[in-house]
């Protein structure tokens, strides 16, 4: 089954909220090798002008991929997850994600195109606080490998 190109332009209802904790940010910072204390120390983050510990820039992917799952798991989308390869990820940060944030993610399917027997799907996820403050725009491209 091919990816349903009729999904281009579809926006899913917001998913979440996803709670951001200082512990989760510190664990992510450790996993990606970040040693900047603003990711692990409330004191360091406050001294740098933030309300609390802030996320490393790539932390946004942990929330954005949960939002992507809504589309990927939609049976009408025609995606066989066993054939998915992550192709590209981009972020535009509007303000740092911080401990204490409650994040919503709104996913839009921007494009579906065929390339060499595969499908290339680009999605955009707008991450906001539950109060509507813009945090990050995450753009992801996945490749759904074609048949053998």
From TrEMBL:
Species name: Pedococcus sp. KACC 23699
Domain FAS1-like dehydratase, chain residue ranges per copy: 7-137
HAMAP family xref list: UPF0336
GO biological process: fatty acid biosynthetic process
InterPro entries (UniProt xref): FAS1-like_DH_region (IPR039569), HadA-like (IPR016709), HotDog_dom_sf (IPR029069), UPF0336/Enoyl-CoA_hydratase (IPR050965)
Transmembrane segments: none
Membership in a protein family: Belongs to the UPF0336 family.
GO terms, molecular function: (3R)-hydroxyacyl-[acyl-carrier-protein] dehydratase activity
Protein's UniProt name: UPF0336 protein ABEG17_11705
UniProt xrefs under SUPFAM superfamilies: Thioesterase/thiol ester dehydrase-isomerase
